[in-house]
């Protein structure tokens, strides 16, 4: 499996036949999804998910995140969410600024999958920008909500399950002061969204949900 993965990441990163690169990126995307244990976000607001890929595989994946071909780039973005880690965040952030809405939304979702302080800051900025596309803001808030409360019901109130995995709490934060600052900034922006009468009601409600999770101590 490791050898096959290395071969495919290398092929995806090469400047060659587009069809071959697309096929390789599609296979990698499917392999990445198959390795997911759950559809829950891999990281938390405080801690980024760890990647099991080698440095060389990550380098090739990051080349794919900058691919000129749209299909290759979208696949690479999904793979980064499934298998990448903190080193993938900057390249995903660049894709959040792309002109293609689908690429932006995919990158936001993958930032949410990876999580961590840097991803949280990026998502907070996108969610709080009143001049940003409403769909982008909603996607960023959704990613933040899923990071803030990984154990929620499927019911309409989506309440926090206090019996959640303790590994999702802030106890394992590497940089507690930095996370405190990031969390406080997030709460301020959430309050601003809630009080913005010009904002879409769904955005305001989702902001309130996230703030509720944060005030319950879920990180």
Strand residue content: under 5%
Task: Give the low-pLDDT segments.
Answer: 152-171
| CATH class category name of the largest domain | Mainly Alpha
Helix content: 55-70%
Give the overall shape, derived from the CA principal axes: globular
* DSSP strand tally: 0
The DSSP helix count reads 10
Q: What is the residue-mean pLDDT, rounded to a whole number?
A: 85
Largest sheet: none
**CATH topology-level fold name of the largest domain:** Leucine-rich Repeat Variant
Through-space gap between termini: 34 Å
- CATH superfamily of the largest domain, by name, is Leucine-rich Repeat Variant
User: In total, how many domains does the architecture comprise?
Assistant: 2
Determine Rg (CA atoms, Å).
Answer: 18 Å
The CATH architecture of the largest domain can be given as Alpha Horseshoe
Question: Which series of helices and strands comes N to C?
Answer: HHHHHHHHHH
What class, by secondary structure content? mainly alpha
Description of the structure:
By secondary structure, this protein is an all-alpha fold. The longest helix has 20 residues, at 176-195. It has helices spanning 2-13, 18-34, 55-64, 70-83, 89-96, 101-114, 117-128, 134-148, 176-195, 201-215. The two termini are 34 Å apart. It folds into two domains: 1-42 and 51-114, Leucine-rich Repeat Variant, CATH 1.25.10.10; 116-219, no CATH class. It is built from ten helices and no strands. Helices cover 63% and strands 0% of the residues. α1 packs parallel to α3 (55-64), α8 packs parallel to α10 (201-215) and α9 runs antiparallel to α10 (201-215).
